[in-house]
Specification:
- The protein has helices at residues 11-29, 38-48, 52-55, 66-79, 83-109, 111-122, 125-131, 137-156, 160-176, 180-201, 213-229, 233-246, 258-270, 275-297, 299-318, 332-358, 363-385, 394-404, 418-425, 434-438, 453-459, 461-470; strands at 410-414, 430-432, 446-451, 471-477, 486-491.
- It is mainly α and 494 residues long.
- The chain has a five-stranded mixed sheet with strand order 2-1-3-5-4.
- The longest helix has 27 residues, at 83-109.
- It starts with 10 loop residues before the first helix and ends with a strand.
Length: 494
């Protein structure tokens, strides 16, 4: 019988849990107010600042994560508008997602390995990064984790209340971000497999997951999702049609290629430091071993997370939409669980062999302690990199130009960063256009800020070539966002 997913954990483990949550809160509070990046500013300007009625009916771009926009609007109303208040819901849901994963990890591995898993999540560079990102991804991580708890509990016993709660969480996740549908599709595939098995074996609904309650829970979730999105349905059709039409020819079209996405993902990991050249292959090996170990113990749990990946890739490929790595952020908790499971399985296999040679008892536990120290210790330097720079230092770039530009200089933004910079940081600045570049005659020095340089170059190669003829690079401000460096250019003397 599978472990009950809920239950007491004891006083000592409870203290450890509270300490982990305290650490999670602390590391997410540090730097919460750093410079906002492009998408966060777009969320603030395009949605959070809207009146409530307009916000709940606006799906003009995919940048709107409706439930996050609403909670951010509440946070800004209570605490005032700032980077920290805009990101506060992400930080809170990032911590909540860690706490919610404990019963899932406990079901798979037992209590203390589960606590190690959530400790690693607490100090995870990527979990912290998204917890300080004013977008709905940590909120989505929380809802999908909660839905998995309910799905697993519903698979253990028939209870209409469990599946009613599942439907409500289903809708909350979908209202946060529509990519939640890929995750729930994995639930649906598992449910269908149980129904098929029941049909083939001509059995009654002996297994709770082969009964009708899961169907009604999922149907309830779909109905609630349609209800909350009803005011947006008019926008949604045209928005998705526009994204699909533009995707093949857009500067970011290569993000539709799974091979490119995978290569980029590995490159981003390796860019975190030379340590990752050793840690990443080791993590992959342990994760694969751990997935196998989890599969042997709990196939439903493993299937939920494993199925979501090919379902997401297939759906986005069919829709000709981009495969952003953040669509797989909901896998992060399971990834850490798999690594810990792999380490534990290796310790179980190696422990008895070592004990025979060195005649020391409890080698397995000692190996787990050493592995825990190594994994947490290896995570801390990566975590510190999160505070080394903002995600995208648009504020720092604007401040530098304002300090160094003369009173008669022209300050501009070129490319996709124009709207957030002028709309949020520097309303007195101008947008530099290709026509303005062609007409430059050198009678006035021009400063220009450029973000997402590769995308700007791909959007209009001729204009970018002309830009580089007439401007020289003055400074580069790093960012932790992939491709998030901000470049400051100044016009060359004539």
């Amino acid at each position: 019988m599978k472990r009950d997913i809920v239950g007491d954990i004891g006083a000592q483990a409870a203290l450890a849990f509270l300490a982990i949550i305290a650490i999670a809160i602390l590391v997410r509070a540090i730097g919460l107010g750093s410079s906002l990046w492009y998408d966060e500013i777009a969320t603030l300007l395009g949605f959070v600042r809207l009146p409530f009625g307009e916000l709940v009916s606006n799906f003009s771009t995919l940048n709107n994560h409706p439930l996050y926009s609403l909670t951010a609007k509440l946070s800004v109303a209570v605490f005032g508008e700032s980077a920290a208040s805009l990101r506060l819901p992400a930080a809170l849901f990032g911590v909540a997602a860690i706490a919610a994963f404990l019963p899932v990890a406990r079901r798979a591995l037992g209590l203390w390995p589960a606590l190690l898993t959530i400790l690693l999540l607490a100090v995870s560079y990527h979990q912290v990064w998204f917890s300080q990102n004013a977008r709905g991804y940590t909120m989505l991580l929380f809802w999908t984790t909660l839905s998995t708890i309910l799905f697993l509990e519903g698979a253990r016993r028939n209870d209409a209340r469990i599946w009613a709660a599942y439907g409500a969480v289903f809708a909350a996740a979908m209202y946060t971000h529509l990519s939640a549908g890929f995750y729930f599709a994995a639930h649906g595939v598992i449910y269908a497999a149980f129904l098929l098995n029941r049909f083939i074996r001509k059995q009654g609904a002996s297994a709770p997951l082969a009964g009708a309650y899961p169907f009604f829970g999922m149907a309830f979730g779909v109905a609630l999702t349609l209800l909350v999105y009803a005011p947006m349905l008019g926008d949604m059709g045209s928005t998705f049609a526009g994204v699909k039409e533009a995707a093949p020819n857009a500067p970011l079209a290569k993000w539709s290629d799974p091979v490119f996405v995978l290569q980029n993902l590995f490159n981003q990991f390796l860019a975190l430091g030379s340590f990752m050249a050793i840690a990443l292959p080791a993590a992959i090996v342990f994760a694969l071993y751990g997935v196998y170990a989890i599969w042997k113990k709990d196939r439903i749990l493993a299937a939920i997370y494993l199925l979501q990946i090919p379902i997401t890739v297939a759906a986005l490929e069919i829709a000709d939409m981009r495969l952003w790595p953040r669509y797989f952020f909901v896998e992060i908790s399971f990834l850490y669980l798999a690594v810990v499971a792999g380490v534990e399985a290796a310790a179980v296999a190696i422990g008895p062999l070592v004990e025979k040679r060195v005649r020391i008892a409890g080698v397995r536990d000692k190996l787990m302690i050493l592995a825990a120290i190594a994994m947490v210790g290896g995570s801390v330097p990566l975590l510190l990199r999160n505070y080394a720079a903002p995600k995208q230092d648009l504020a720092g770039a604007v401040a530098m130009v304002d300090r160094e530009a003369a009173s008669n200089d022209l300050t501009t933004v070129y490319g996709v960063a124009a709207e957030p910079v002028i709309g949020y940081f520097a309303p007195e600045w101008s947008e530099l256009t290709p026509a303005m570049i062609r007409e430059m005659n050198g009678d006035r020095r021009i400063w220009s800020l450029v973000a997402f340089r590769e995308q700007v170059a791909a959007a209009d190669p001729d204009a970018w070539a002309l830009f580089n003829e007439k401007f020289s690079l003055h400074a580069q401000l790093p960012g932790t966002l992939g491709g998030g460096a901000v470049f400051i250019y100044v016009s060359k003397p004539s």
